[in-house]
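Please, structure for the following, as tokens.
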Amino acid sequence: MDDLFATHDALAVGELVRTRKIGVRELVDGSIAHLRKLNTSLNAITNFYDGALLDKSIAAAGEGPFHGVPFVVKQLMAECAGTPTTLGSKFFADQPVATADSAAVARMRRAGLVIVGRSNTSEFGLAPTTEPAFGGATVNPWRKDLSPGGSSGGSAAVVAACGLPMAHATDGGGSIRIPASLCGLFGLKPSRGRVSLAPIGETLAGAGAQLCVSISVRDSAALLDALAGGEPGDPYRAPPMEGTFLDATRRPPGKLRVAFMRKPVGGVSLDPVLVGAVERTAKLLAELGHHVEEASPDYDAAATGAAFGTVTCANTHTNILVRAGGRIPGPHDLEPVTRLYAERGAAISAHDYIRAVQTFHRTGRLLGAFFDKFDVLLSSTIARTSLPLGTVRMDRSLEGYEEGLAPMIPFTAVCNATGVPAMSMPLEWTADGLPVGLHFVGRFGAEEMLFSLAAQLEQARPWRERRPQDAAREK
């Protein structure tokens, strides 16, 4: 298994199982052994399945396109029958095991995936890194002193290290795209309502979404085909697609109107390395036949950011109360920033919360008008070239945490606030061999267009031959 996931994406592995070139049990047992070995240095997986739980997971896998492919599910926003979901928090370490899968996890199993473990996350997914006090820091396989980003850093580290071809990830402000950028992977956040969050209705006023990080574009597309669609009682649904997302990767995107940004809306200039990456990608898009020009959407970034803070704090407070079932966190049960967010959330009035949601909607109207003129908005994914471990601290002041957070989300969070789809692609590299993610945003419901464009860019500038050990040699 050490080499299989370095050369095969998830669909290719599923085909090996379908044609009986490898058995499911052989594949799963070999993968778990390989993952355990990797995890001694990565600290990316919090729980491994074994015994009866693993047997049930294998038996539950359907004969879909990913039949028999091992998979890990993040410890956030997803329930897996028979295991607890800790949210990366000591306070929920003894959470009762789930009695049923959440809707998306049930669809994962029907698509053939075999869940073999749960992946690490920051506490409540609040940090754009994966360094929870409960469970410890996950390291980036590209360089051990760096974070893989977050909050889906456990999943991203496993895939980047060729432990799995794809893994579950969630995104409330950039948590699919940030680790995809820092780990050299593909990561797409779907439109609001594309993947049901049942049995819950929504999270973060609709900002939360889930899918995966993957080594190939087509794996993410095929998984979204498996997960897309509503469940009874969903508060909203994304518009239906014309075909399948996997089919979209097999056809050219046509001539798209692409806008590119050299800096965030309302923000300061980027590192020249990132500006150069955006400019070279814009040039590549023009060479591929797209209309490309520099342009930025017009919205109040400061107001949107403040609204995001209000929604996040209020949700943190409420989710602790609801999930804890009356238990009160002790003085050491929550990380300091989580506690401060919850305390701030307890003081937020209904008026302030509604105004924050209205700001989300107002920003969505402005972004929607921008996408009347353009099909795609290009930028860097984050405003950093790397993220050293310890840069974003949850164990100190709120001001220090927010200072570390700010350069991680200036391009990503607005997509969550407005519900539009966005993806990160590893199309550029630093001088010392680290991946640089490029960020592409589309109008609401436009995942098919993004997947078509992603497949075109993947072919024009492939990345799968690059490995973390390459960066170590270049350093």
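The first strand starts at residue 45 and ends at 48. The chain has a mean pLDDT of 96.
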